[in-house]
């Protein structure tokens, strides 16, 4: 019976604005077979699969009906988690910890170029009270940005700095398409999408896929000399109606992080975590989320960025990959964060590998309006940092 | 008795004429297949590099072998009708936006040299004149665009 | 199975063709409330909420986000799993995995669908492959008609034999206060009902329903200390979501995914003689012919013997192995909920809480889930 799960291999197919010449099966097959080849693993050795995709993005009710052959699901158990790729990793880990499986292939795909993104995003808002308002992801995020920036007196220049950092880092990341060396001033000169969010501060629809292999403690060393252990995992979800939430703070993220830290035995994240890959769909989130993650005090995210501590050569690098702003689609973006963090631990991040040794890394994913649903994973290259998996998440006094 | 009458409370609905347009990429394999229909009026199946099965619809990988398909094999245009039905219920066809006219024949045909079946309309809509095992032949439309509807239907081979 | 987990409570709505008196989240809430009442628990006892449906039916993207208040998921671990028709079972299985992992004690699992809010056939056609199927597909009805024609041709199954499935299941539904269609039918009624797509007639096919179903999966400690109901332990589960197209293989002739999943589940549960060892079964049969085919794939009879089995009465309420005491899918089909209703009904049978549709002395129950391109989920539950 397993009490620890590790990432034993990762593969990214790279994201592009549009992969028009690729059918979803071709993209997924390239990704999954690429992972299998890298691992030296036969498909018959895979126990089960967790895929991540969305019916609305694929334009296909039962979006995983497109990919059973491409993902190797023949005669296997497969399930589709329709949310963010980071949750698919958490669910894959849960499936192995249940004892029924020894390993789990986790993959995510999206081809946002095939659908009309405003219409799709608008469909996330309930048809009775919200849809007619034309809400979409950007507008919801803009409302949150406004709340956060007002409360803590954050300026547009400060969110633009975060975007400039992200896009400049992304220029060195061969798996994304939007990176370029750019200044905060240039970011602010880009089109205003929904104030206060400028075009270069918002994520862009993209096409891509990626995959990783999880394995139980018993099997991990069969596939790799350097397993990356999932030392902690936590997820939580906030209210749905934007008006019900305190948009100036990321309460669900704080709770998710708390759970992940507890499982990993982390008491001082700002000291114990070596690197963070967070899902910056919007640049202000790179200021807001480190606060919820306990890496700095509330309202101090901009100061943290300005200090240089979170640059790739800083003491606590955040998004050396550039994050989601560099060009990741939904679903894939959270799984990409996990892959980037794991690769950094193993020194396999190529061009964007940070110089300092990375033992403990954090990967965060989200989905829903203004990050309503959040998932945090703490990864460890140190076999001694163990997940406390025998004590359930629920604790007294929980709301 | 409707809910309104039962409870005496007026119930409202909000209509959302949802229009979700999608442009699906055919990819390399799909593009080859549909161009062959459009330009040559020919069917091609895709062969597994390990077990040799010829798949139609074509796909990049053979599920059971998890090996790439690597060869195009011309199949059909004749084949065997392996199952059929005559559809009597009309429904809103999302491809045309109109109600599909009924009755019409619909079946699975295993094209010669293929190992899996293709589904399509049949020219015959009288169930008594259709039999599992009949030989059928594809009829192509004059105007073809590179999609499944370039085939009009399958008709019994005389 | 490494760590034990059991279903300790179930709740569902009274399924109807159109629930105009509630919106989507209110419908879900009814099932959640009924389930919590059955467990004598409140939201504070629940660690995690898992949910699924088929989103294109209602045209709401990520409805789980909207349902946060209705499900009591606020600030909890909450995931959405959507796998088409098998969704309800995928979510129930996810509940098992969550508890068995040791990370969660008490998990609420919900399947639901408000079919009347959208256009079911259009939703089903949107399920088809856009390149190779969509312009021709005739919904689930067309697919079953093709499969049934092949099945009948191969084994000589008759339309009368298929009709007997409807007679049995619709008759059983009279005992199920939650079922959508509760008027019995005769073989003549079925044979003379309007043809949909030969050989499928109106009464051979399931209805479309609005409904929701919820179960609570709990750890051994919670099940033994806090459950007011006799726990229904998970004994085996198996999933096969491995066909992309409906045209590749004969679907009702030794159904590939069902046979393969059954082999795995039976091995896990030590089932060598399903007819003797199962006390009751709840099938996900979207049409009459399917139930006959599945007797064969599940080993209740030999290949091609489905028609003879229904003739023999073995699967009637009074027979050796009752199938679908709830009335099955022929009587109720709220797609996102349906596979979970099968698991919930099997659990109720094990708990002895199935009321007028209870089969005596149930120890081992089988539930099947169906969806997509003839995908399968199997769940085997056992009482102590």
Ends of chain B: how far apart? Answer: 55 Å
Gyration radius over CA of chain B: 21 Å
Give the mean pLDDT of chain C. 96
Arithmetic mean pLDDT of chain B: 91
State the order of secondary-structure elements of chain B, H for helix, E for strand: HHEEEEEEEEE
CATH class type of the largest domain in chain C: Alpha Beta
Question: How large is the radius of gyration of chain C?
Answer: 19 Å
By DSSP (H or I, 4+ residues per run), the number of helices of chain B equals 2
Number of domains of chain C: 2
CATH topology of the largest domain in chain C: Peroxisomal Thiolase, Chain A, domain 1
Annotation, overall tally of beta strands of chain B? 9
Order of helices and strands of chain C: EHEHHHEHEHHHHEEEHEHHEHHHHEE
Widest beta sheet: strand line-up of chain C: 3-2-4-7-1-8-11-10-9
Keywords for this entry:
heterotrimer, A: Peroxisomal Thiolase, Chain A, domain 1, nine-stranded mixed beta sheet, B: 158 residues, mainly beta, five-stranded antiparallel beta sheet, four-stranded antiparallel beta sheet, 12% helix, 34% strand
What does this structure look like?
The complex is a heterotrimer of chains A (399), B (158) and C (384). Chain A has helices spanning 24-39, 55-58, 85-97, 117-122, 137-152, 156-170, 184-189, 217-223, 251-264, 269-272, 285-292, 301-306, 332-345; strands at 5-12, 48-52, 77-81, 103-111, 192-194, 197-198, 207-216, 228-237, 275-277, 360-367, 373-380. Chain A is of the alpha/beta class and 399 residues long. Chain A has a domain at 5-116 and 206-216: Peroxisomal Thiolase, Chain A, domain 1, CATH 3.40.47. In chain A, the strands form two sheets. A nine-stranded mixed sheet of chain A has the order 3-2-4-7-1-8-11-10-9. A two-stranded antiparallel sheet of chain A has the order 5-6. Chain A is globular. Chain A starts with a strand and ends in a 19-residue tail after the last strand. Chain B is mainly beta. In chain B, 12% of the residues lie in helices and 34% in strands. Chain B has helices at residues 3-7, 27-40; strands spanning 43-48, 54-55, 61-62, 67-75, 78-87, 104-111, 118-122, 135-140, 151-156. The mean pLDDT of chain B is 91. Chain C is an alpha/beta fold. Chain C has two domains: 5-120 and 209-232, Thiolase/Chalcone synthase (Peroxisomal Thiolase, Chain A, domain 1, 3-Layer(aba) Sandwich); 133-207 and 234-382, Peroxisomal Thiolase, Chain A, domain 1 (3-Layer(aba) Sandwich). Helix content of chain C is 39%, strand content 18%. Chain C has 16 helices and eleven strands. Chain C has helices at residues 24-39, 55-58, 63-66, 68-71, 87-100, 120-125, 139-155, 159-173, 187-191, 220-226, 256-269, 274-277, 288-297, 306-312, 328-331, 335-351; strands at 5-12, 48-52, 77-80, 106-114, 195-197, 200-201, 210-219, 232-240, 280-282, 364-371, 375-382. The interface between A and C is large, with 68 and 68 residues.
């Amino acid at each position: 019976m397993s009490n620890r799960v590790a990432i034993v291999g990762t593969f990214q197919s790279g994201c592009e604005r549009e992969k028009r010449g690729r059918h979803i099966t071709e993209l997924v097959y390239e990704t999954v077979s690429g992972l299998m080849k890298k691992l030296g693993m036969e498909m018959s050795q895979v126990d089960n699969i967790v895929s991540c995709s969305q019916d609305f993005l694929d334009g296909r009710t039962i979006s995983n009906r497109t990919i059973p052959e491409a993902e190797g699901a023949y005669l296997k158990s497969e399930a589709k988690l329709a949310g963010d790729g980071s949750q698919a990793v958490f669910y894959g880990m849960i499936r192995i910890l249940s004892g029924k499986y020894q390993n789990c292939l986790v993959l995510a795909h999206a081809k946002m170029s095939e659908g009309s993104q405003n219409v799709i995003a608008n469909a996330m808002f309930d048809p009775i009270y919200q849809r007619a308002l034309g809400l979409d992801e950007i507008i919801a995020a803009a409302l949150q940005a406004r709340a956060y920036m007002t409360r803590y007196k954050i300026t547009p220049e400060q969110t633009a700095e975060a975007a400039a950092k992200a896009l400049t880092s992304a220029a060195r990341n061969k798996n994304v398409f939007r990176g370029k060396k750019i200044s905060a001033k240039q970011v602010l000169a880009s089109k205003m999408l929904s104030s206060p969010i400028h075009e270069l501060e918002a994520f862009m629809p993209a096409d891509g896929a990626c995959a990783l292999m999880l394995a139980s403690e018993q099997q991990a060393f069969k596939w790799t000399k350097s397993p990356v252990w999932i030392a902690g995992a936590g997820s939580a979800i906030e209210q749905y109606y934007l008006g019900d939430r305190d948009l100036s703070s990321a309460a669900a993220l704080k709770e998710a992080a708390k759970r992940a830290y507890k499982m990993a035995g982390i008491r001082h994240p700002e000291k114990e975590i070596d690197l963070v890959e967070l899902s910056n769909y919007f640049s202000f989130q790179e200021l807001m989320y480190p606060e919820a993650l306990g890496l700095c005090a509330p309202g101090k995210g901009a100061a943290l960025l300005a200090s240089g501590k979170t640059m790739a050569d800083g003491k606590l690098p955040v998004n050396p990959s550039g994050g989601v702003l560099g060009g990741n689609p939904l679903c894939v973006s959270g799984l990409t964060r996990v892959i980037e963090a794991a690769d950094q631990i193993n020194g396999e991040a190529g061009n964007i590998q940070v110089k300092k040794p990375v033992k403990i890394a954090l990967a965060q994913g989200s989905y829903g309006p203004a990050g309503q649903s959040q998932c945090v994973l703490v990864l460890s290259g140190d076999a001694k940092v163990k997940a406390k998996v025998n004590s359930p998440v629920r604790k007294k006094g929980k709301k | 008795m409707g809910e309104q009458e039962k409870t005496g409370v007026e119930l409202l609905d909000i209509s959302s004429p949802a229009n979700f347009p999608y442009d699906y990429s055919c990819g390399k394999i799909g593009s080859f297949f549909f161009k062959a229909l459009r330009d040559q009026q020919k069917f091609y199946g895709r062969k597994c590099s390990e077990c040799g099965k010829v798949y139609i619809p074509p796909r990049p990988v053979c599920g059971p072998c998890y090996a790439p398909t690597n060869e195009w094999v011309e199949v059909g245009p004749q084949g065997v009708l392996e199952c059929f039905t005559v559809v009597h219920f009309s429904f809103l066809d999302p491809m045309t936006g109109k109600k599909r006219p009924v009755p019409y024949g619909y079946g699975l045909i295993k094209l010669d040299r293929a190992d899996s079946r293709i589904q399509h309309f049949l020219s015959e809509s009288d169930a008594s004149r259709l039999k599992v095992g009949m030989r059928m032949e594809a009829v192509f439309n004059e105007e073809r665009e590179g999609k499944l509807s370039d085939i009009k239907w399958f008709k019994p081979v005389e | 199975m490494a760590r034990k987990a059991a279903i300790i409570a179930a709740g569902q709505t009274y399924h109807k063709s159109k629930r105009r008196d509630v919106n989507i989240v209110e419908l879900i809430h009814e099932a959640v409330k009924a389930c919590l009442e059955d467990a004598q628990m409140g939201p504070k006892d629940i660690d995690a909420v898992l949910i699924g449906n088929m989103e294109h039916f209602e045209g709401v993207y990520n409805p789980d986000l909207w349902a946060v208040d209705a499900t009591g998921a606020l600030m909890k671990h909450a995931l959405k799993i959507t796998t088409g028709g098998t969704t309800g079972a995928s979510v129930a299985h996810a509940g098992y995995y969550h508890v068995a992992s040791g990370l969660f004690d008490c998990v609420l699992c919900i399947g639901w669908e408000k079919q009347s809010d959208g256009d079911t056939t259009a939703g089903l056609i949107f399920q088809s492959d856009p390149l190779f199927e969509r312009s021709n597909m005739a919904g689930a009805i067309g697919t079953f008609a093709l499969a049934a024609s092949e099945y009948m041709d191969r084994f000589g199954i008759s339309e009368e034999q298929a009709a007997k499935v409807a007679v049995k299941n619709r008759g059983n539904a009279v005992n199920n206060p939650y079922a959508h269609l509760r008027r019995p039918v005769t073989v003549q009624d079925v044979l003379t009902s309007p043809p949909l797509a030969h050989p499928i007639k109106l009464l051979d096919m399931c209805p479309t329903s609005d409904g929701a179903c919820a179960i609570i999966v709990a750890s051994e400690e919670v099940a033994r200390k806090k459950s007011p109901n006799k726990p229904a332990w998970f004994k085996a589960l198996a999933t096969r979501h491995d066909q992309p197209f409906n045209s590749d293989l004969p679907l009702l002739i030794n159904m590939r995914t069902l046979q393969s999943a059954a082999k795995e589940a039976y091995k896990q549960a030590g089932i060598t003689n399903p007819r003797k060892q199962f006390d009751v079964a709840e099938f996900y049969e979207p049409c009459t012919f399917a139930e006959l085919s599945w007797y064969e794939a599940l080993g209740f009879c030999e290949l091609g013997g489905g028609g003879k089995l229904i003739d023999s009465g073995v699967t009637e309420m009074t027979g050796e192995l009752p199938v679908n005491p709830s009335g099955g899918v022929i009587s109720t089909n709220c797609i996102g909920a349906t596979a979970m209703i099968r698991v919930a009904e099997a659990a109720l049978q094990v708990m002895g809480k199935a009321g007028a549709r209870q089969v005596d002395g149930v120890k081992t129950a089988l539930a099947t889930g169906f969806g997509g391109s003839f995908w399968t989920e199997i769940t085997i539950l056992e009482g102590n």
